[in-house]
C-alpha cells in the first residue's frame, strides 16, 4: 500500500537514513582498516543517494518539496549539481522528445551532422562509450564533459545559481572527507565508481523509435541493482506514472504488465545480467541517431 496519500513516505526516509549511515561508516570507520571496502561502500552510498535525488525531484517523500530537497543536498558525488539534475531530468520527461539529441538533455545519441563533424579519435571514443563496459569505464567522464559543456554553451541565471549552490553545499562534504581517514583521491575514485554504477541503469533506458511511447525500457530485475536504482529499471512504468513512489512500481507493473508492454512495444529485458551478457563489449545502438538523418535534419543545433 502506498504512503502517497499520507504526509510521510517512511520507506523512502528509511532508505535515506541507511544511505547516509553507510556513507558515514565507510568514510569514517571502514576506511581506517580497509580502503578498498571503503571505496566500494562509499560508491554504493553515492549511487543510492542519486536514486534518492531522483525520487525527490519527483516530489517524494514529503509534501514539502523544500524539505525534500534539503535532505538530498549536497550531491555526495561532487559532480552533478542537484538543481541541474532536477531541471534536466524534468525536461527529459517530455516523452515526445525522448532520445532527441537536441531536445532531450539525457539523450546518448548525436544528430547525424554532429556525428559527421567529429574527428576520428572522438568517434572512436563515442563508439567505445556505446558499449556497457565503455559506458562504465569512460562514461562518467564523457557524460560530465558533455553536461558541463552544454551548461557553458547555454548560460543562464538559473544554471549559474544551481552551480553556485552546488559549490557551497559541497564544502561540508569536502570538509568531512578531509577530517576522515579516507584520502581525497580515494573519495574521488568512489565518486567516479558511484556514477559508473548509475551508467548501468541509463545505458539502454531509451531507444530510438518512431513512437515516443515505445522508447522506454522495462528491465524485470529484482536483485541488488534494482534496489540500488529504486526500481527505476521499470523505467516505462516510471515514465507513465512519475508520481508513484519507487516501492509501488513493481506491483503497478505486475498489475498491468500486458498494458505496459503493449505501450512500449515490448522493449524489455529480463535482468541486468542479460544486458551485461549481450552488451558488455558490443554496442546496442549506433552513436548517430538512426531516425535523424543529416539530409532530413534541418533544425538549428543549440548555440
TrEMBL record:
Organism name? Litoreibacter meonggei
InterPro entries in UniProt:
FA_desaturase_dom
GO:BP terms for this protein? lipid metabolic process
Domain Fatty acid desaturase: start-end pairs: 33-256
Against Pfam families, the record matches this protein to: FA_desaturase (PF00487)
Q: What is the name of the protein in this document?
A: Fatty acid desaturase
- Annotated keywords: Membrane, Transmembrane, Transmembrane helix
Bilayer-crossing regions: 20-47, 159-178, 184-204
Cross-referenced CDD domains: DesA_FADS-like
